[in-house]
User: What shape does this take?
Amino acid sequence: MDKKKVLSGTRPTGPLHLGHLEGILRNWVNLQEDYDCSYFIADLHYFTDRSEAKHLQEFVYDVAIDLISSGIDPKRATLFVQSHIPQHYQLHLLLSMITPVGWLERCPTYKEQVSEMGLGDSVGYGMLGYPVLMATDIVIHDADFVPIGEDQLPHMEVTREIVRRFNGIFGDVLKEPQALLTPVRRLLGVDRRKMSKSYGNAIYLKDSPEQIRSLVANMITDPKRPRKEDVGHPDECNVYTYQEIYNSGRLEEIAEDCRKAKLGCKECKGELAEAVIKKLEPIKERRSQLEAKPDFITDVLVAGDKKAKESASITLKRVMEAMKLT
Ligand code: ATP
Ligand code: MG
Assistant: This one.
């Protein structure tokens, strides 16, 4: 029997961070064992909230290195660049024809972005249509499963609605995918907002030990513990969430010492920083090897693009036939 298909992507808006490592890459790497996996660099999505491309190519390259250094194996998974697959543009247009604008306007991520960025009337058509492009990326490769972070769940719901609507009109043409989450659905950044490349609150996989120590030292901790002598509340502390991931072996002791005010936030953060540095060491080691082989990265992406084009053209043909566009 054919393996089930997995597909997901990440925007080349900067290098990858701990939110990616825990929120998606854990799944991306593990799923390679048993599924037919495709992962892509979403450079078209880059333009949904940006209008310059100064560092785009550098970031595409950086993300590819981060993915391979974190355990994505180009021999097992297909790694491609979204904009290199013309079928994505084509299907996007066709799906946009059957997508009600109300679905997109009601999307919480869209409303949040518009209000946070204060865009009002100047909001771009591409930002509104983000979920349509995401739906395209997924259904064009017949994905069964889509490993994402929690913030993408509303977009997945739109994807599923688009599939149902399309199939309702044109017959059983598109596959309805399911989202997959890791236990760390949304890692918070050093400022307690979602860790994000756009918020300047991220610990990047390629950060140096000095950068990591300084970022962790500045993390916001338990808001109810202003002084070291006060007792702490691990369940309300972002640093403790990180300890759950990176110091799981010493978790009970950390929690108890925090609650009794025996462990200060500064020492707690010091211990966390060292654990994060240790976790990232092998990833950084692989990164430095890959940085010395730029042709290898190019070859991986060219091979991935070729496979992705083949898979996308099969679905596009099916869609065009169903829509009597042949
Ligand atoms: P940007 O700020 O440019 O949107 P980002 O940091 O949000 O960048 P994306 O490329 O948008 O990263 O997201 C790629 C994938 O990683 C998505 O599935 C997203 O849900 C997931 N992800 C991103 N940040 C986190 C996080 N902090 N915790 C869990 N998952 C995350
Ligand atoms: Mg994002």
